[in-house]
Amino acid sequence: GMWKVVPDLNHAGDRLQAVVHLDCFLHGAHLIGAPEEDEFIPHGMKHSDNLDIFPTFYVNKYADHHSNEIAF
């Protein structure tokens, strides 16, 4: 069940960033940070640092009953 996703990067290897209007969102996603194979999760990590710490994420397509409408 879960898909693995990575952020988009530019030619310099930096994450692409953009401002997206709230009307453009179809549905929220439940992202679960995926550490590298030999990497440990920092002990004092805050939930607000997830997008900066993890290089890849799992998308939980079973997070709610509406996910199947756009996932399949």
Plain-language structure description:
The protein has helices spanning 50-53, 67-71, and strands at 2-5, 31-34, 56-60. The two termini are 12 Å apart. A three-stranded antiparallel sheet has the order 1-3-2. The model has no long low-confidence stretch (mean pLDDT 78). The chain is globular and about 35 Å long. 12% of the residues lie in helices and 18% in strands.
Helix-strand sequence = EEHEH
Major sheet size, sense and barrel closure = 3 strands, antiparallel
Q: What class, by secondary structure content? A: alpha+beta
The number of distinct helices, counting runs of at least 4 residues, comes to 2
Gap between N and C termini: 12 Å
- Morphology: globular
Percent helix, as a range, is: 10-25%
- What ranges have pLDDT less than 50 throughout 5 or more consecutive residues? none
Overall pLDDT: 78
Strand order in space, largest sheet: 1-3-2
Radius of gyration: 14 Å
Number of strands: 3
Strand content: 15-25%
Question: Mind sketching the topology for me?
Answer:
Layout: E1 2-5, E2 31-34, H1 50-53, E3 56-60, H2 67-71
Antiparallel strand pairs: 1-3, 2-3
Structural features:
3-stranded antiparallel beta sheet, alpha+beta, 18% strand, 2 helices
Quick gist of this model?
It is built from 2 helices and 3 strands, in the order E-E-H-E-H.
